[in-house]
């Protein structure tokens, strides 16, 4: 049973890596000029037995894949193999949610991710903190907050954000 579960997870990891490649790979190649020192192809025989098992479905076409694609798949597989069973379970759940999104939802998620990556580390930390705070709310509280935000005008949203920033600044000021 454990072997079957490991194989299934390895296959899901490979599928996730492929999905992410398909979702972002061609776009990244189109935006990135060719590197002066392009990556060297990875020989199938240089992969560990675990990596070969996880990437088994690519064995027949491995040598015809671009080197950068091979390396992305190997990196994804290495991350997968380094995960604890709990982390793998969470990754499977995230992948299942991603797979069920519409193309429009996926594009919106990509845009939000790129916007997040452009933030400073402090801003990213605030986004994560607010996300965790939101997740701690009850489903009813979250829905109420969503409705309040959706029904607010742009000016009201701006005021809400400004009040939130002011509260956060007051909390961070030293008490004395």
As an assembly, this protein is single chain
> How many beta strands in the DSSP annotation?
0
CA-based shape: elongated
Q: Given the helix and strand composition, which structural class is it?
A: mainly alpha
Distance between the amino and carboxyl termini: 60 Å
Task: Please describe what this structure looks like.
The chain has eight helices and no strands. The protein is mainly alpha-helical and 176 residues long. The chain is elongated.
Tag the structure with descriptive keywords.
176 residues; mainly alpha; 2 domains; 8 helices; disordered N terminus
Give the topology, please.
Layout: H1 2-31, H2 49-54, H3 67-82, H4 85-99, H5 103-117, H6 121-136, H7 139-151, H8 154-172
Helix pairs in contact: 1-3, 1-4
Give the structure's gist in a few sentences.
This protein has helices spanning 2-31, 49-54, 67-82, 85-99, 103-117, 121-136, 139-151, 154-172. The chain has 176 residues and is mainly alpha-helical.
